[in-house]
């Protein structure tokens, strides 16, 4: 492990990659929340619906894992989404202990209506970058996520 001193200036901190990644994530979430502020769904709703669009019938724990949310946060969001009619809980045949979360037609409609907001956010985020730069960025992020995965084992 390389030993280095902590950043000594704000400029050095602003250029420290882990700080930049956290800042991008935090500011990005704030921007997405603002972009969705006029809609009937929240960022957590969009993330949950996006996951269910790919794989319906997940449990709350599975949704939390895939949306990088705390289980308690996901549980509250699922309760609110069920009350809005965006999702419903089902008990599958063969496992009465399992509670699967299913997207309703209203949930699908909300996802489809609000997805352009997410696309507009990403278009603004990548403004001024080339497709090659984005491809390189994606490769680096994938590699870093793989490294983190190994650290968690």
Automatic annotation (TrEMBL):
Which GO MF term does the entry hold, naming one?
DNA binding
What species is this protein from? Aurantiacibacter rhizosphaerae
PROSITE patterns from the entry? Answer: HTH_MARR_2
Query: What keywords sit in the KW lines?
Result: DNA-binding, Transcription, Transcription regulation
Q: What is this protein called?
A: MarR family transcriptional regulator
Where in the numbering of this chain does the HTH marR-type domain appear?
A: 10-146
Tree of life domain? Bacteria
């Amino acid at each position: 492990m390389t030993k280095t001193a902590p950043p000594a200036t704000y400029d050095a901190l602003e250029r420290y990659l882990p700080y930049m990644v956290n800042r991008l994530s935090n500011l990005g979430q704030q921007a997405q929340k603002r972009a969705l502020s006029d809609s009937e769904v929240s960022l957590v709703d969009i993330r949950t619906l996006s996951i269910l669009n790919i794989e319906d019938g997940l449990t709350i724990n599975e949704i939390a894992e895939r949306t990088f949310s705390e289980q308690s946060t996901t549980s509250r969001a699922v309760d609110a989404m069920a009350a809005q009619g965006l999702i419903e809980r089902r008990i599958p045949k063969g496992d009465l202990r399992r509670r699967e979360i299913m997207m309703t037609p209203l949930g699908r409609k909300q996802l489809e209506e609000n997805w352009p907001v997410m696309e507009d956010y990403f278009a603004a985020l990548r403004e001024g970058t080339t497709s090659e730069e984005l491809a390189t960025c994606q490769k680096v992020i994938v590699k870093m996520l793989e490294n983190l995965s190994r650290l968690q084992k």
